[in-house]
Amino acid sequence: MILHRLLVVVDQEKSRARLLAAAIWGLCLAVAGIPALGAEHRFDGLYSGNRVLTKGSADPTCPAEDTASVAIHGDTLTFTNSAFKKWTQPFDPGQDGSFGQTYTGEGGGVVRYHGRIVGDVIDADVTNYATNPPCQHHWHLKKE
Questions:
Q1: 67 and 136 assigned to the same domain
Q2: CA angle, corner 131, sides to 127 and 134, nearest 5?
Q3: 136 in the same domain as 121
Q4: What is the CATH number of the domain that holds 73?
Q5: Among 29, 51, 113, 130, fewest CB within 10 Å belongs to which?
Q6: How many domains is the chain partitioned into structurally?
């Protein structure tokens, strides 16, 4: 009888130890996951540099060279140059950093951009079809 009671007590202690171990393991996993919830996306940041005319004729709406910047935050890309100020677009890059979007404005103007982020550098081609003739710039921007 005493041996039976001793075995019951030992069995109960094993069960408590298992529950405690499971609770500690769950807590460890929860704490480890907390930083990931607030983590920045891989490409988040501010990139700045120049855009250079590659197609079209240089004029005030299509400068030969201009400064440009891009701010990426999560799934949005906001770019600024002399023609567009804080122009925000959806941003859904591929695993290799490639991205692209075609935008049609309310007035019918169309801008198409596509490019790739490698390391801290964005190289993109941006075509503004609202100008006549359309002009295209190559953007080379470095993360600040």
A1: yes
A2: 45
A3: yes
A4: 2.40.128
A5: 29
A6: 2
Do 73 and 130 have their domain in common? yes
Q: Tell me the pLDDT tens digit for each residue of 4-62.
A: 554 444 455 555 545 444 444 444 434 444 444 445 689 999 999 999 999 999 998 89
Q: What distance in Å separates the CA atoms of residue 33 and residue 23, rounded to the nearest whole number?
A: 15
Domain hosting 32: range is: 1-39
Burial label, 9 (beta-carbon count in 10 A; 0-12, 13-18, 19+):
exposed
Arithmetic mean of pLDDT over the chain: 81
Q: Are residues 107 and 49 in the same domain?
A: yes
* Statement to judge: residues 4 and 59 lie in one domain: no
> What confidence category does residue 117 fall into, taking pLDDT thresholds of 50, 70 and 90?
very high
pTM of the predicted structure, to 2 decimals: 0.70
55 and 92: one domain?
A: yes
**Using H for helix, E for strand and C for coil, what is the string for the chain?**
CHHHHHHHHHHHHHHHHHHHHHHHHHHHHHHHHHHHHCCCCCCCEEEEEEEEEEECCCECCECCEEEEEEEEECCEEEEECCCCCCEEEECCCCCCCEEEEEEECCCCCEEEEEEEEECCEEEEEEEECCCCCCEEEEEEEEEC
